[in-house]
Amino acid sequence: MRGVTIVGASLAGVSVAEGLREHGYQGPVRLVGAERHLPYDRPPLSKALLRADEPEDPPLLRPRSWYDDNEVELLLGRRATALEADRSAVVLDDGERLAWDHLVIATGSRARRLPGLDGPSVHHLRDLDDARRLRGVLAEPGRLVVLGAGFIGLEAAAAAAERGWTVTVLEREPAPLVRVLGPQAGALCVRTHLARGIDLRFGAAVAETCPAGVRLEDGSVVPADAVLVGAGAVPNTDWLSGGGVEVDDGVVCDAHGRTSRPGVWAAGDAARWRNELTGRHRRVEQWTSARDQAALAARAIATGDAGGAGWAGPPYFWSDLFEHKVQFCGHAEPDSTVWTAHDGRRSLALFGRGEQLEAVLTVDAPRLLGLGRRKLAERTGWAEAVAWAKEAMQ
Amino acid sequence: MKITVDLGRCQGYANCVAAAPDVFDVDDATGKAVLLAAEGDAAEIREAARSCPVAAIGMEE
Questions:
Q1: Smallest Cα distance from A185 to chain B, Å
Q2: Which residues of B touch A289 (CB under 8 A)?
Q3: Where is the Reductase C-terminal domain (chain A) (predicted)?
Q4: Half-sphere exposure at residue A165, Cβ-oriented, CA atoms within 13 angstroms
Q5: What is the CATH classification number for the domain harbouring A338?
């Protein structure tokens, strides 16, 4: 028995290993990770880890003893370089070839690099080494330019401002968080950024780094001691080229994690699953989705049964911006119908399409988010959802 | 069954509310989880514990 090889030692990978053992899988389980660190939780990297008063290490997903206790073999600091699906094998960077009965691709994503933006003052924020480097830089106040008003950029901007930095956020789009929230609702998330003096500039087209900082396409220069590029993530699927599984913005999967090749599965940021609740077939870079996908794939592998309900969880993520908790559940589109309310303390936004509720956003209202998630799972209609929201925000 | 919530760790992610709505709620004023019941559906509570990003929920069966 060759067992299960999991490539990618992050949340999805560890959750697959855990799920296999919980469902009684008896064969060998191997977990291959490119980083040397024991698998850790990633969300704190752009949040707590950037603060001076927080520990420099993110929480481990499981203590080292857990891997021994569950007979999960860890191969850390090893990168998969090729898939040989016809031979049921993966090749590692040192040339070792691992054979498997089942392969789970959980190689995640990496920060998108932008042309013209490089040099020693340019940072990205994706893994622990990135976060520690930025944390070190933030120790001495200066001027930070953040490229991109997405969640990573806004979280880091907040953390830097709290540490005394002068922060400018440059965003090409006309509003913050457009890609996730559409043009209207993002404003609810940046009230405190504006109140704390962060300079948010929209419609700003960045050309390149220069000795003084960052040069825009109109020739003007924004001075910077450090630059953080928050331009989204790209799936780590290059190593699968020619390997025999279909890749198209992530490894293409059904609602159970099966790829185009029997015995090969994928989960997390590197995978593009079909969601049975939303009907969408999109790559999702979210903690809860990675965990839910891993649990489904593990169960299917361990039991040999990929029947029954597939992935139907509404996508969910959270963000910490200053002292505010932003939570979002579902899928919004640029042309979604949006309803928003703010009561001086809490904010709530609903997103709808036709007669259907499709997403819920809250700021400092976790209870409403929890209730909203249930409404999404129950496929609540738009009119009913708005009536609930109006009452809840009274 | 014994369910515990470590309020020092709880960050109000509300994953528990989605997993086990009869057992967990989150107080918007404190941003912390609230236990609504001393017991409930074991599978739901186990899922709530597992889906908590800060591992604040404990359960003894």
A1: 20
A2: none
A3: 316-384
A4: 33
A5: 3.30.390.30
